[in-house]
Write a structure and sequence with these properties.
By secondary structure, the chain is mainly alpha-helical. Helices cover 56% and strands 7% of the residues. The chain is elongated, with a radius of gyration of 18 Å. The chain starts with a helix and ends in a 7-residue tail after the last helix. The model has no long low-confidence stretch (mean pLDDT 80).
Length: 86
């Protein structure tokens, strides 16, 4: 989520200020509304007050398709690299 937030607000924030938690909360709420994220079902100790999220089945499928497209784009650009021709 932090990487997504930096992508949204710009990389220059990475060196200066932390991403405001309301940005991350907003992203999480949007992804949950799209059924891409859900509260984690994994058990944690009683002292652990952190909130945990997991990808849903749809979230895993969407992530897989995005990664596959990125990999295929990379393969296409690699195959078309003019410096590769000898």
């Amino acid at each position: 989520m932090t990487s997504l937030a930096f992508h949204h607000v710009g990389q220059e924030h990475r060196l200066r200020d932390p991403i405001p938690s309301n940005y991350l909360t907003s992203f999480i709420a949007d992804f949950a509304a799209l059924d891409l994220l859900a509260s984690s079902k994994k058990r944690h100790s009683v002292q652990d007050t952190n909130t945990y999220w997991s990808l849903t089945l749809l979230g895993r499928e969407v992530h897989s398709r995005i990664r596959k497209n990125e990999i295929l784009k990379g393969l296409v650009s690699f195959a078309e690299d003019p410096e590769d021709e000898t």
